[in-house]
Amino acid sequence: MELLKRRILQDGIVKDGNILKVDSFLNHQIDIDLLNEIGKEYKRRFANENITKILTIEASGIGIACIVAQYFNVPVVFAKKAKSANIDGNELYTSLVNSFTYKKEYNITVSKKYITADDNVLIIDDFLAQGNALLGLLDVVNQAGATTTGIGIIIEKGMQDGGNIIRSKGYNLQSLAVVDSMSTETGILFR
Amino acid sequence: MELLKRRILQDGIVKDGNILKVDSFLNHQIDIDLLNEIGKEYKRRFANENITKILTIEASGIGIACIVAQYFNVPVVFAKKAKSANIDGNELYTSLVNSFTYKKEYNITVSKKYITADDNVLIIDDFLAQGNALLGLLDVVNQAGATTTGIGIIIEKGMQDGGNIIRSKGYNLQSLAVVDSMSTETGILFR
């Protein structure tokens, strides 16, 4: 998606340790006009699919998923990272995720009421690196007996293994920008 | 907002301990059509204000803020609850919040780049109870030298102190539904 790649080149900041900061437009401050263009792009890419639900994970996936959902006329469900006092523990799908960004393990939880065997799920998230959060979401969809119809990622870090792992499992993974290399010296190169 | 109150009566679940679960349409599964009606309502209530930015807090505020932002044509900024490896610690506004739901203290952080003295801020969040998260967001706006033009809350728990504290400070607080009492026996009563 050229608009997105231009924006990453313009406003993305490469930091040591394979970090790409896009918090001026995607995951701290959010450019809603850009998200609407992203929603149109996903609708084009998944035009022939009968999607019934969009699944994402807190926190930075939620805004993207909500804007994208407007183009599919379906509800959003977001997986939670911490067990709140407001959730019934025995009515949850849970999956253990190992976070690259936060350098710790955590459980994600989704209420069994909101993903069912009848659902065709589009999974949305901002980043795909090692793919651990995404594998947790796929695990939740599988536990529900639902179908993962597609996966929409905004930025895939192509030099890490997540994309290959997910594609090798046969999923329809649509990453809008795949970064094949980045460094503070050479900048960002897209696939 | 009658549509919202009817939805709370229809799908909200009252639990012991002053808990109102609205996770079927607001903060786990999200009804995007309802959020768009909420966006129109806030636009009507803040029609004469020159809002330049919407500020919320992760996680469940983000989806609401993003849909609402479409009616004001402004970016969203969401305060983060945990310090990520991807944030520069010396470039942040921070404020300490005491959470009712999670029964612990945490710092919220906002990059100094995304709220500035020129901003007229609309703060959006799903719930207002004791008001601690909201006081943290107001503290961030004050640290930035920006103006809090308004506060939009979806559900205010009127039997707790937050609403009175915020109104006594002179803020334009617009709660779309104020719950004055609730119990598993008598159900939900609105103000």
Describe the fold and architecture:
The structure is a homodimer of 191-residue chains. The first copy, chain A, is an alpha/beta fold. Chain A is built from 5 helices and 11 strands. In chain A, the strands form 3 sheets. A 6-stranded mixed beta sheet of chain A has the order 5-4-8-9-10-11, sandwiched between helices. In chain A, strands 1-2 form a two-stranded antiparallel ribbon. In chain A, α2 (32-45) crosses α3. The longest helix of chain A has 14 residues, at 32-45. The mean pLDDT of chain A is 94. Chain A binds chain B through residues 15, 17, 19, 21, 23-24, 28-32, 35-36, 58-60, 62-63, 65-67, 69-70, 73-78, 80-82, 84-87, 101-103, 110-111, 113-114, and chain B through 15, 17, 19, 21, 23-24, 28-32, 35-36, 58-60, 62-63, 65-67, 69-70, 73-78, 80-82, 84-87, 101-103, 110-111, 113-114.
State the distance separating the first and last CA atoms of chain A: 12 Å
Neighbour order of strands in the largest sheet of chain A: 5-4-8-9-10-11
Mean pLDDT across every amino acid position of chain A: 94
> Given the structure, what is the number of helices of chain A?
5
* Largest interface, C-beta within 8 A: A-B, 43 and 43 residues
Overall 3D form of chain A:
globular
Oligomer: homodimer
The share of residues in extended strands of chain A comes to 35-45%
